[in-house]
Amino acid sequence: MLNKGNAATIRAAVEALELTGGETAADIGFGGGLGLDLLLAGTGESGRVHGVEPSGDMVTRARRTHAAALADGRLELHEAPMEALPFPDGTLDGWISLNTIYFVADLAPAARELARVLAPSGRGVLGVADPDWMASQAFTKHNFTLRPVAEVVATLEASDLTVEDRTLTGRMPYHLLVCRPTR
Protein backbone atom coordinates (compact mmCIF):
# COMPACT_ATOMS: atom_id res chain seq x y z
CA MET A 1 0.00 0.00 0.00
CA LEU A 2 2.81 2.42 0.89
CA ASN A 3 4.48 1.75 -2.45
CA LYS A 4 1.32 2.07 -4.55
CA GLY A 5 0.02 5.27 -2.96
CA ASN A 6 3.39 7.01 -3.02
CA ALA A 7 4.92 5.64 -6.24
CA ALA A 8 4.75 8.86 -8.26
CA THR A 9 6.33 11.00 -5.54
CA ILE A 10 9.03 8.40 -4.80
CA ARG A 11 9.93 8.24 -8.51
CA ALA A 12 10.04 12.03 -8.72
CA ALA A 13 12.29 12.22 -5.65
CA VAL A 14 14.76 9.69 -7.05
CA GLU A 15 14.75 11.51 -10.42
CA ALA A 16 15.53 14.78 -8.61
CA LEU A 17 18.75 13.21 -7.27
CA GLU A 18 20.01 13.00 -10.89
CA LEU A 19 21.91 9.77 -10.23
CA THR A 20 24.40 8.70 -12.90
CA GLY A 21 25.67 5.46 -11.34
CA GLY A 22 28.25 4.59 -8.74
CA GLU A 23 26.85 6.85 -6.01
CA THR A 24 26.13 6.06 -2.39
CA ALA A 25 22.51 6.93 -1.66
CA ALA A 26 19.96 6.34 1.10
CA ASP A 27 16.23 6.13 1.56
CA ILE A 28 15.60 7.48 5.04
CA GLY A 29 12.29 6.12 6.27
CA PHE A 30 11.95 3.65 3.38
CA GLY A 31 8.56 2.24 4.39
CA GLY A 32 7.38 -0.18 1.69
CA GLY A 33 10.77 -0.25 -0.04
CA LEU A 34 10.03 1.13 -3.53
CA GLY A 35 12.61 3.87 -2.98
CA LEU A 36 15.24 1.23 -2.27
CA ASP A 37 14.47 -0.45 -5.60
CA LEU A 38 14.64 2.82 -7.51
CA LEU A 39 17.88 3.88 -5.80
CA LEU A 40 19.45 0.48 -6.55
CA ALA A 41 18.55 0.94 -10.21
CA GLY A 42 19.76 4.54 -10.26
CA THR A 43 23.12 3.93 -8.59
CA GLY A 44 23.83 0.93 -10.82
CA GLU A 45 26.01 -2.10 -10.19
CA SER A 46 28.86 -0.03 -8.74
CA GLY A 47 26.65 2.00 -6.42
CA ARG A 48 25.65 1.40 -2.83
CA VAL A 49 22.26 1.98 -1.22
CA HIS A 50 21.35 2.31 2.43
CA GLY A 51 17.88 1.98 3.87
CA VAL A 52 17.23 3.67 7.20
CA GLU A 53 13.99 2.96 9.01
CA PRO A 54 12.92 3.39 12.65
CA SER A 55 10.48 0.47 12.40
CA GLY A 56 12.03 -2.92 13.09
CA ASP A 57 9.08 -4.59 11.34
CA MET A 58 9.79 -2.69 8.11
CA VAL A 59 13.50 -3.54 8.32
CA THR A 60 12.63 -7.23 8.75
CA ARG A 61 10.29 -7.07 5.76
CA ALA A 62 12.95 -5.36 3.64
CA ARG A 63 15.49 -8.04 4.56
CA ARG A 64 13.15 -10.58 2.96
CA THR A 65 12.14 -8.56 -0.10
CA HIS A 66 15.66 -7.28 -0.87
CA ALA A 67 17.65 -10.40 0.01
CA ALA A 68 19.58 -10.46 -3.29
CA ALA A 69 20.77 -6.83 -3.02
CA LEU A 70 21.76 -7.44 0.61
CA ALA A 71 23.66 -10.61 -0.34
CA ASP A 72 25.64 -8.90 -3.10
CA GLY A 73 26.56 -5.99 -0.81
CA ARG A 74 24.77 -3.27 -2.78
CA LEU A 75 22.21 -2.68 -0.04
CA GLU A 76 22.61 -2.20 3.68
CA LEU A 77 19.68 -1.75 6.08
CA HIS A 78 19.75 0.19 9.34
CA GLU A 79 17.19 0.47 12.11
CA ALA A 80 17.62 4.05 13.27
CA PRO A 81 15.70 7.31 13.64
CA MET A 82 16.29 10.30 11.38
CA GLU A 83 17.74 12.18 14.34
CA ALA A 84 20.66 9.70 14.64
CA LEU A 85 21.73 8.57 11.18
CA PRO A 86 24.34 5.77 11.17
CA PHE A 87 26.78 7.40 8.71
CA PRO A 88 30.00 9.38 9.00
CA ASP A 89 29.91 13.03 7.96
CA GLY A 90 29.57 13.70 4.23
CA THR A 91 29.28 10.09 3.09
CA LEU A 92 26.03 10.18 1.09
CA ASP A 93 25.92 11.44 -2.48
CA GLY A 94 22.15 11.52 -2.17
CA TRP A 95 19.24 10.73 0.06
CA ILE A 96 15.48 10.73 -0.18
CA SER A 97 13.07 10.94 2.72
CA LEU A 98 9.36 11.11 1.94
CA ASN A 99 6.44 11.42 4.32
CA THR A 100 8.73 11.01 7.31
CA ILE A 101 8.83 14.33 9.13
CA TYR A 102 5.22 13.96 10.29
CA PHE A 103 6.61 11.53 12.86
CA VAL A 104 9.60 13.60 14.00
CA ALA A 105 8.82 15.60 17.14
CA ASP A 106 11.72 18.08 16.83
CA LEU A 107 12.66 18.75 13.22
CA ALA A 108 15.87 20.73 13.87
CA PRO A 109 18.04 17.77 15.03
CA ALA A 110 16.77 15.65 12.11
CA ALA A 111 17.57 18.45 9.63
CA ARG A 112 21.08 18.78 11.06
CA GLU A 113 21.58 15.03 10.58
CA LEU A 114 20.33 15.17 6.99
CA ALA A 115 22.79 17.98 6.29
CA ARG A 116 25.66 16.31 8.15
CA VAL A 117 25.63 13.08 6.15
CA LEU A 118 25.36 14.74 2.74
CA ALA A 119 28.57 14.98 0.69
CA PRO A 120 29.61 18.51 -0.38
CA SER A 121 28.42 17.84 -3.94
CA GLY A 122 25.44 15.74 -2.81
CA ARG A 123 21.73 16.28 -3.02
CA GLY A 124 18.85 15.26 -0.78
CA VAL A 125 15.11 15.29 -1.36
CA LEU A 126 12.65 15.69 1.50
CA GLY A 127 9.06 15.04 0.44
CA VAL A 128 6.01 16.42 2.22
CA ALA A 129 2.38 16.66 1.23
CA ASP A 130 0.76 20.05 1.40
CA PRO A 131 -0.10 20.56 5.09
CA ASP A 132 -3.54 22.06 4.34
CA TRP A 133 -4.45 18.99 2.31
CA MET A 134 -3.02 16.71 5.01
CA ALA A 135 -5.08 18.47 7.70
CA SER A 136 -8.24 17.55 5.78
CA GLN A 137 -7.43 13.82 5.94
CA ALA A 138 -8.87 11.78 8.81
CA PHE A 139 -5.74 9.60 9.17
CA THR A 140 -3.57 12.59 10.12
CA LYS A 141 -5.51 13.11 13.35
CA HIS A 142 -3.44 10.30 14.91
CA ASN A 143 0.20 11.06 15.74
CA PHE A 144 0.96 13.26 12.70
CA THR A 145 2.80 16.54 13.18
CA LEU A 146 1.93 18.87 10.31
CA ARG A 147 4.18 21.84 9.64
CA PRO A 148 3.92 24.71 7.15
CA VAL A 149 6.28 24.12 4.21
CA ALA A 150 7.94 27.49 4.87
CA GLU A 151 8.80 26.31 8.40
CA VAL A 152 10.31 23.08 7.06
CA VAL A 153 12.36 25.02 4.49
CA ALA A 154 13.58 27.46 7.15
CA THR A 155 14.64 24.57 9.39
CA LEU A 156 16.57 22.92 6.55
CA GLU A 157 18.21 26.22 5.62
CA ALA A 158 19.21 26.79 9.26
CA SER A 159 21.03 23.44 8.98
CA ASP A 160 23.27 24.73 6.16
CA LEU A 161 21.24 23.44 3.25
CA THR A 162 19.93 25.36 0.28
CA VAL A 163 16.41 24.32 -0.63
CA GLU A 164 14.50 24.33 -3.90
CA ASP A 165 10.77 23.66 -3.50
CA ARG A 166 9.43 21.66 -6.46
CA THR A 167 5.66 21.41 -6.19
CA LEU A 168 3.98 18.39 -7.75
CA THR A 169 0.32 18.30 -8.62
CA GLY A 170 -1.87 15.25 -8.77
CA ARG A 171 -4.29 13.67 -6.34
CA MET A 172 -2.74 15.93 -3.69
CA PRO A 173 -0.37 18.91 -3.76
CA TYR A 174 3.10 17.66 -2.83
CA HIS A 175 6.44 19.35 -2.19
CA LEU A 176 9.82 17.90 -3.07
CA LEU A 177 12.34 19.97 -1.13
CA VAL A 178 15.59 19.48 -3.03
CA CYS A 179 18.48 20.16 -0.66
CA ARG A 180 22.15 20.88 -1.32
CA PRO A 181 24.88 21.68 1.21
CA THR A 182 25.92 25.31 1.52
CA ARG A 183 29.44 24.28 2.58
From TrEMBL:
One of its GO terms (biological process) is methylation. Residues 27-124 form the Methyltransferase type domain. One of its GO terms (molecular function) is S-adenosylmethionine-dependent methyltransferase activity. InterPro entries: Methyltransf_11, SAM-dependent_MTases_sf. Keywords: Methyltransferase, Transferase. It comes from the Bacteria. Gene3D superfamilies: Vaccinia Virus protein VP39 (3.40.50.150). This is Methyltransferase domain-containing protein.
